[in-house]
Specification:
Layout (H helix, E strand, L loop, with lengths): L9 E8 L2 E6 L4 E5 L4 H7 L2 H10 L3 E11 L2 E12 L6 E3 L6 E3 L38
Antiparallel strand pairs: 1-2, 2-3, 4-5, 6-7
Length: 141
């Protein structure tokens, strides 16, 4: 098994989406990953607390970056405004406790199964947290 922290102890981890996470380890070193955002923006403009705020307050974080672009042998600098951090995952459904998820297509995320279940507490539509009447979902395959 690969040791990605080189023997350091992991203190905190916040994963917002796939390839968008931050971790804090002993020794004060932070590792921040954010796919699609330039490394200089991640290093200088995004902090560990931004990941926490994004998850807890459901806010998206927008940052501006510049890059070099070449078209027909003409090089130009392009300014881009991109969503740097977003708590809305496109592969998982966030459960109400804000730390556990279900995969898209899980039987408890089916539109037929809305309400509360005795097993886990909550069953709802993908991407929405709404409480309806009490429905047993054990017979849905």
């Amino acid at each position: 098994m690969k040791d990605e922290l080189s023997g350091r102890i992991l203190l905190e981890f916040f994963g917002l989406r796939s390839k968008m996470y931050s971790e804090k380890s002993v020794g004060g070193s932070d590792m921040k990953k954010c796919k699609g955002i330039s490394s200089s923006v991640v290093k200088h403009c995004i902090e560990f607390s931004d990941y926490i705020q994004c998850l807890n307050e459901e806010q998206t974080l927008v940052r501006q970056q510049s890059r070099l672009r070449s078209r027909l042998h003409n090089t130009e600098t392009v300014q881009q405004t991109k969503i740097a951090l977003s708590p809305f995952d496109d592969k998982r459904v966030l459960r109400p406790n804000r730390t556990q998820t279900w995969a898209w297509g899980h039987y408890k995320t089916s539109p037929l199964c809305i309400g509360f279940d005795d097993d886990d507490g909550f069953v709802g539509e993908p991407g929405r947290i709404e409480c309806y009447q009490r429905i047993r979902c054990s017979n849905i395959k």
